[in-house]
From TrEMBL:
UniProt-annotated stretches for the region Disordered: 1-22
Membrane-spanning ranges: 29-55, 67-84, 91-109, 115-134, 164-182, 189-208, 228-246, 267-290, 310-334, 341-363, 383-404
InterPro entries for the chain: Benzoate_Transporter
Record organism: Kitasatospora herbaricolor
Pfam families documented for this protein: BenE
Keywords of the record: Membrane, Transmembrane, Transmembrane helix
Entry protein name: Benzoate/H(+) symporter BenE family transporter
Amino acid sequence: MVEQQLVEQTVAHPPDEGGRRSLRRDVSLPALLAGLVCIVVSFSGPLVVVLAAAAAGKLDPAHTASWIWAVSVGSGATCLLLSWWTRTPVITAWSTPGAALLVTSLGAYPYREAVGAFLVSGVVVALFGITGLFGRLIRAVPAGIVNAMLAGILFSFGTGIFTALHAAPVLVLGTFAAFLLAKRLAPRYAVPVALVAGGVLAAVTVGLPLHLGDAGGPTRPLLTVPAFSWPSLVGLALPLTIVALASQNAPGLGVLRAFGYRPDDRLLIGVTGGVSVLLAPFGSPGINIAAITAAICAGPESHPDPRRRYVAGMSAGALYLLVGSFGGVLVSLFTGLPKELIAVIAGVALLASLQGSLAAAVAEEQGRDAAVVTFLATASGMSLFGIGSAFWGLLLGVATHLLLHARRPSPGRLPT
């Protein structure tokens, strides 16, 4: 309690420029290592989901590398600057659930229209952040419906672990077993351990043809001129915006508050939304406040003194910039992984998000009908009028909720 009060006072009343804490004095090895762990987790599991989305959109290696460069540089710059400015361990990242949405939707639209949807989503997120409408949006749609939509998006990744069994049973079962064992002994490193174990098993069983090719140098970002269409705006931009705000930024801010910080949501969401707009033409679907990796840097493992944990956020930001600048190398390495290994790594990386969204979707008995409708419609992969299932799941869920729970008008008094 004392720690929480101390952090709240520090963040609520930040010192002026002359009284700012000295970065040189606050740097510590645990904080630097926390930033390193954050990057390892980010680039081991969630990156596989991004690559799966790029493959679904039929992007070539150059555009895929540009996408990784954009999300990495955007995450690095915002981590570094926001952590330094607010003296809070602000961790930002691309949205893994958002990338999962793109796996099921990106291939339905021309890439230029997808970039246009990314740009519009960034503008909307920034406006909701700057104007303070973020909280109102979160309260407008029942949380169960939003979580059910997210669960429907992630459902195919969970089942993908087991549908890959017939092609490479030793690889899939061994990787999954390594994940579960690490989850028991060292939960923070479960996904990286699964990736390493899976790589070893792949090399032994089905082969691991990794190569760098001509991608050894820094990435050259590719600019794509955005195009706009109603189907892409409704089918991509709208679900991406909702996922970014409700399933990414809201939990991310919640993690910081849980550790006693009082983040300025207008500043954090406004800045990340603005950076998303700038990087959308290079392939970035959005930069958001992180949740899982934020807990690594905001917790006591980063530093016993909560006022010195912002260094972990800066460390993560610097490493994001370094690693992301060589996105072509990452693409070359990861595209050499067998598809069965990618399926199981993506599945285990999203397992926590899936179980959390499922639990939240049915937490309230009154909203379960609408949540189930949303989940089934989204997981079905249906498409109508060129618009993907995430939007229709959300729309049908809200309609179900209104139909079942809308207040009936009070009958007027009978004349006497």
